[in-house]
């Protein structure tokens, strides 16, 4: 099945108190290139992630953005340093006694003093412990990306197949018209010579006329080009059904088909054939634009 090189996929999951989020963006590229962006502390996980994504990407540039964030907790995240608080209270009471002060002491006053309250320290988690859950959510994001690439690839294949059918039809028309071209040339040439020979003191050399027609037939023979073009169309249609990456092969075939169409247009001394060859070249150019998006 034809797959597009462009697509998007995103998945996230919870691992304990951490939220793991994976986002993938794929764009056109000549080769397969996978770029993984994740927090610096988890750099050890980059290689396993890249290898996993490579199972789903055959060609194109894929940017994998990973975030690992600790989710906010509904419980208190602060702790009181009771030793420091008791020292502050004793010191304040001594100051009240020494200076005969009667200022009341409130808890909010203590909380404003240094080292009385602090944020709880989070327990350090080894990056390797995230490997399995991260790879799992990465796999789901890759499947999401692949699904979009397949849908877009199907639309590309339908459009290209439609244009290919037109090219096949035009090629058959050219094949039917080609033999008539030589006969038309023979008739035109003979008529012109006959008109010119009216009243001439010598007779028409039919052997020389036959040689001229034969030379024209050889020079304007496009049977080989038609055969190759038909063969390329058949190969192109078969490649669209293949499961592997076929983008480069399709691009190569389009170049060959365009070369045959150019030769037909230049060799065929016939307006209808040249018009059909131009139509073929126009569709080939549109097909090539589409093929640039195929893996």
Task: Please supply descriptive tags for the structure shown above.
295 residues, alpha+beta, Ribosomal Protein S5, domain 2, Four Helix Bundle (Hemerythrin (Met), subunit A), four-stranded mixed β-sheet, two-stranded antiparallel sheet, 58% helix, rod-shaped
Write the SSE topology.
Blueprint: E1 7-15, E2 18-27, E3 32-37, H1 46-54, E4 60-70, E5 78-80, H2 82-99, H3 107-111, E6 117-119, H4 131-197, H5 206-219, H6 223-239, H7 247-267, H8 271-291
Helix pairs in contact: 1-4, 4-5, 4-6, 4-8, 6-7, 7-8
Quick recap:
By secondary structure, the protein is of the alpha+beta class.
Characterize the structure shown.
By secondary structure, the protein is an alpha+beta fold. The chain folds into three domains: 7-73 and 128-149, Ribosomal Protein S5, domain 2 (2-Layer Sandwich), CATH 3.30.230; 78-119, no CATH class; 151-291, Four Helix Bundle (Hemerythrin (Met), subunit A) (Up-down Bundle). The protein contains eight helices and six strands. Helix 4 (131-197) runs antiparallel to helix 5. The longest helix is centred in the middle third of the chain and has 67 residues, at 131-197. The N and C termini lie close together (10 Å). The model has no long low-confidence stretch (mean pLDDT 84). It comes from Brevibacillus borstelensis AK1.
Q: What's the average pLDDT?
A: 84
CATH topology of the largest domain: Four Helix Bundle (Hemerythrin (Met), subunit A)
Q: What is the count of distinct domains?
A: 3
**Count of β-strands:** 6
CATH class of the largest domain: Mainly Alpha
């Amino acid at each position: 099945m034809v797959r597009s090189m462009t697509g998007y996929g995103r998945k996230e999951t919870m691992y304990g108190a951490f939220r793991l989020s994976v986002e993938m963006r794929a764009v056109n590229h000549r080769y397969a290139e996978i770029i993984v962006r994740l927090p610096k502390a988890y750099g050890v996980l980059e290689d396993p992630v890249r290898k996993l994504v490579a199972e789903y990407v055959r060609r194109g540039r894929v940017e994998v953005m990973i975030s690992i964030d600790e989710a906010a907790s509904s419980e208190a995240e602060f702790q009181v340093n009771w030793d420091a608080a008791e020292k502050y209270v004793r010191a304040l009471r001594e100051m009240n006694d020494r200076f005969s002060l009667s200022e009341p002491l409130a808890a909010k006053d203590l909380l404003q003093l240094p080292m009385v309250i602090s944020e709880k320290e989070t327990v350090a988690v080894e990056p390797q412990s995230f490997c399995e859950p991260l790879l799992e959510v990465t796999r789901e994001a890759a499947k999401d990306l692949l699904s979009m690439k397949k849908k877009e690839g199907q639309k590309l294949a339908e459009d290209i197949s439609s244009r290919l059918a037109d090219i096949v039809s035009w090629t058959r028309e050219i094949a039917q018209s080609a033999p008539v071209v030589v006969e038309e040339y023979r008739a035109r040439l003979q008529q012109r010579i006959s008109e010119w020979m009216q009243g001439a003191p010598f007779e028409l050399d039919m052997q020389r006329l036959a040689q001229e027609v034969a030379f024209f037939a050889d020079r304007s023979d496009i049977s080989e080009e038609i055969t190759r073009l038909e063969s390329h169309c058949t190969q192109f249609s078969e490649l669209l059904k293949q499961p592997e990456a076929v983008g480069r092969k399709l691009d190569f075939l389009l170049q060959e088909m365009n070369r045959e169409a150019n030769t037909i247009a230049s060799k065929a001394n016939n307006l209808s054939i040249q018009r059909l060859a131009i139509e073929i070249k126009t569709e080939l150019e549109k097909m090539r634009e589409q093929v640039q998006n195929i893996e």
